[in-house]
Amino acid sequence: MEYDNLHTMLRLSDLLRTESRKAASAEALQLVHYDIINYIDRCNRYSDTPTALVDYLGLTKGTVSQTVSLLVKKRILQKKPDQKDLRISHLQLTEKGHQVLKNIRQTLQLTADRLYCSATYKKALDTVLKEMAWQLQEEKDKKPYGLCKTCRYNTQKTEDTYYCTLLDATLSATDTDKICREHQYST
Ligand code: SF4
User: Fold this and answer.
1) Percentage of the chain exceeding pLDDT 90
2) Residue 69 contacts by C-beta under 8 Å, 6 or more apart in sequence?
3) Whose CA is nearest to atom 6 of ligand 1?
């Protein structure tokens, strides 16, 4: 990739982060709060822990711990103990959390609507952006956190039932639209 392209992407990223910050601020939240609730809403049940947040967002354990505590106090997130291992907590959005996230996304959709892209390019853009994110994560030896439906361990069983051969778990069609920390692309 040319440096000019990288520069354009960095500029676009800055502009979008600014818009996201404004949208979060309208809900009395900081950008990092939005990053966390957005991830928790999009991840699957194997990836909704504080440890996964540390990996995914590249934040310190201390920052994640403090921020999650604040979001629990604001009744935006709730913690649920793991059924098999009580040392592990799963994070979920509360009803209020879902509403707050919906409001932020509606505001951000207005920004997305201003970014015209023809239908032909939309698909190509989606593929290219995901491919680039994957390459960077791979090079940094990070978990890819990809969408379940693109994972090598995902096997379709019936029209709307899937199976994860890695975690030995049945998955619904909704599950396959979630982000997973165990995700692996086919080689
Ligand atoms: S199929 Fe892959 S992405 Fe889906 S739950 Fe299993 S490991 Fe995670």
Assistant:
1) 71
2) none
3) 164
